[in-house]
Design brief:
By secondary structure, the protein is an alpha+beta fold. It is about 25% helix and about 25% strand. The strands form 2 sheets. The protein has a 6-stranded mixed sheet with strand order 3-4-2-1-12-11.
Length: about 290
Amino acid sequence: MNIYNVSLFLISLLFSTAFSGFSTMNAQEADPIQVTVMSYNIRMNTESDGINAWPHRKDHVAEMIGSKYLPGVAGLQEVLKGQLDDLQERLPEYAWVGQGRDDGKEAGEFSPIFYNTNKFEVIEDQTFWLSETPEVPGSISWDAAITRVVTSARLKDRDTGREFYFLNTHFDHRGEQARIESAKVMVDYISTLPEDIPIIVTGDFNVPETSEAYAVMMGAPNLFDARYASETEHQGPTATTNNWEEMRPPESRIDYIFIREGVRVLNHRILDDRYDERFPSDHLPVIADVELR
């Protein structure tokens, strides 16, 4: 083969490799990834709960996550450090990110994000406070009874390299103005995130759909309630809290999954599993299968 033919062969090989890589990249960009996401207030560990205290139900909560429903990513609320340790021990395929709301370290409740490490890795994460000074650990504002936080993580799918944001929070249980302002803080934060990356938000918002705080969340550009964005009819109860043995009245949701445009919601469910006639928490998990486009 003369030098001219060698040159043509090398050029042809170069273009073939380049276009092959380009096609692979386009296929990865085009193919959506499916993720099961969960929002679950697991109820803090308090001895006053008696038979419903954490030591009696920690295995059941872990089973809901790690054996029965297997979310790729789960936003949990009311989680103390000891409970994090208990869940981590029982969920070896998961890791978590988050900070204690009292000091930005380990004190107080967390709103952690648990993720399946076989499927995802965390690129970056941060915790900010629902206050007039979100960057100050332990800060509290308005009429809030206690400190509240948002945990934010940028995750990457290990198979495709596709990335998405996952936010998890727990709004104040007493302060109406605090809930409204907290929704504004969240919406402002979401507006700073890249528009071309999908966003999923989970949390115990402590408000019904008729509240002003819910209206603020729904007023954010391209943000939707996953229940109503679902391509199939909602399954399960329409309340998300209970008294350990009985459900609260229908249509009394306070736990939600929100998504930004670009996330396709395949289904939306509220889970009412019981163990020995009792719920594993005083909240029910909210779960959805979504596609990230």
